[in-house]
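Worked Example 4.2. Read the sequence first, then its C-alpha cells.
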Amino acid sequence: MPELPEVEVTRRSFASRIAGASVASVSLGKPLRWPLGCHPADLAGRQVLGVGRRGKYLILELDQGFLLLHLGMSGSLQFGEGLPPAGPHDHLNIVTSRGTLRLHDPRRFGAVIYATSLQDGVVSKLLGGLGVEPLEAGFDPVSFHQALKRRRSPIKQVLLAGDVVVGVGNIYASEALFAAGIRPTTRADRISLPRARKLHAAIVAVLQRALALGGSTLRDFSSAEGQSGYFQLDAMVYGRVGQPCRVCGTAIRQIRQGQRSTYYCPSCQKP
C-alpha cells in the first residue's frame, strides 16, 4: 500500500506541472471505493490552483471546490501529454490544458471525491480523525510522548492507527522502531520520554530518507513521472526475515500484528 512518502513523492512529481491548468473534461472507469460526489461534466472549466496532501490523501484545490484522491492498495497516478488510451484498470482521467492526470488502480480500493469544501460531509469524516503530520512543525517529541501515554496498545499498532501521527505505515513504522531500538510489541504507554524522543527523531529521519529515495516500490508504485522508489533496498529490517541484522548480526524476526507483518531485531530492539 502506498504510504506517506509514496503519496508525497507522487504529489511533488506533478504538482508544479498541473498548477494553473484548466480542466477540459473528466471521465471515470469502473466504480471506486466511494462515489465522485458530482457529475464529471460539472468539473469541466474548473482551474487547478494547486495540489496539497493530508496523510495519504492528495488534495487538488480547484477554483471551485476540491478533489481528494487516495491511491488505495495498489494505485498510482500518471500525468503528462500524449498518454496511451485508458486501459481496463484506469479509473479516472482528468484532461487539462497541461496534460492528463490518470489514476491506475487494478484493485479499485482507491477513491476520488469532490467536495465544495474540506469541511463537507465525507471529506470531514475522512480527514477529521487524522493525527499530526510527521514532517511538519506540529510534530514535537513532548506532545508525541503525551499522546503515547494515553494508548495501551503495542507501539507499532499505535503508529499504524494514524490518529497520533499520520502516514507512518507498515514499512516505515518497522524501520523507525528499529532505529529507535524499541520492540514493536512494547506498549505505547510504557515508553519513556527519552525513548519517545528517539522514536520521534527516527520517524522523521526514516520518512525524510524515504522521500529522498523516491519512496518504496514493492509491487506497483511509481510516481506520476513513472519513476520507481528505492527505499526498500535500504531497509534495515523490513522484508529481511531470517537475514542477519545489519548492526549486530542477529537474525531478523517476523511476527503478525493486526494482520500486518512486523520485522524486528530481537537484540537491537528492547521491550
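Now turn to a second chain, presented in exactly the same format:
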Amino acid sequence: MARRAAFVAARPLITPEGVDLRVRLADAGTRASAFLLDVVIISTAAVVITIVALFGLRGLGEHELQPLFIVWIILIFLLRNAYFIAFEAGRRAATPGKRIVGIRVASRSGAGLSIDQVIARNLMREIEIFLPLSILAGRGGAGVADTLTTIFGLVWALLFALFPLFNRDRLRIGDLLAGTWVVEAPKLALVEDLSLRQDPVANAFHFSPAQLDAYGIAELHKLEEVLRRDDYFALRAVADTIGRKIGAAPQPHDAKPFLTAYYGDLRAHLERKLLLGTRKADKHAR
C-alpha cells in the first residue's frame, strides 16, 4: 500500500530541454503544516506591528483612530501577501514554513517559476481563505455576525481548504490558475559545489563566450539538478541538447564530463556578467 502511495505521489517534470526530472508531490498534511507555520510567523509580525502602532498612537481619540484602523487592515493585507510572494519568488521558491517541512513551489511546465505564477497563486489565497475569515472577523467585531453568515463563511473557507484532497495532484485553486504545484524538497546536509569538481576529462572541454551566452541563470539551475541527479540517460539527453545548440559534439561516454565543464564555465561566465551589471535570466533573454 505504501509503495502504491509513493508511486502516485511521483510526477514527471519535463524541462525545456526535454529532460524528465521526476518530483514527488507534497501531501496535504505537509502543506497544511507549512501554511500554519507561515500563519504563526505572519501573525507574530502583525502583533508586534500592532503593539508598536498602539504605543505610538495612544494619545489619539476614537475618531482619529477609525481611519487609521483601515490603514492597519491594508498594511496587514500587504504584509501577508508580500511575505508569501517575496519568499516564493526567491531562488528557493519556498516560504520559511515550507522550508521547515521540506517542500517548495514548482512550475508544472518544467520551466522556471515566474513572478506572475507566484502572484496569481498567492492572491488567489485571499479569496480562498483570508477573505471569508476577514468578513467573519469584521462582522464579529462589529457585533452583527449571525448564524447564517458564520456558516456561510466557514463553509466557503472549508471548501477551498479541502479542495486539494479531491484532485490527484493535491492542487489548490491557486495552483490550478497559476500552473504550479508543491513538491518535496528534502534538505541536503552538505551539498557539493559542482563548480569545484576536478575531472581530468572535463578539463579537456573549453567553451567560447558565444557558446556560454546560449544559456542563462534558469538553465544553469536546471543543469545543476541534472548533474546532482547523476542519471546516465538524463545526462546524455542534456549533453546532446546543449551540444547541438552550441555547436559541439560530445561523445556519449563524455556526457558527464562535458556537462560538468559547461556548468563550471557557464557559472563563472554568468557571475562575471553580473559583476558588470548584466543579468541573463534564461536562454530567451537578450
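Notes for the reader: Strands lie at 10-11, 23-24, 103-107, 180-184. Residues 1-7 have pLDDT under 50 and may be disordered.
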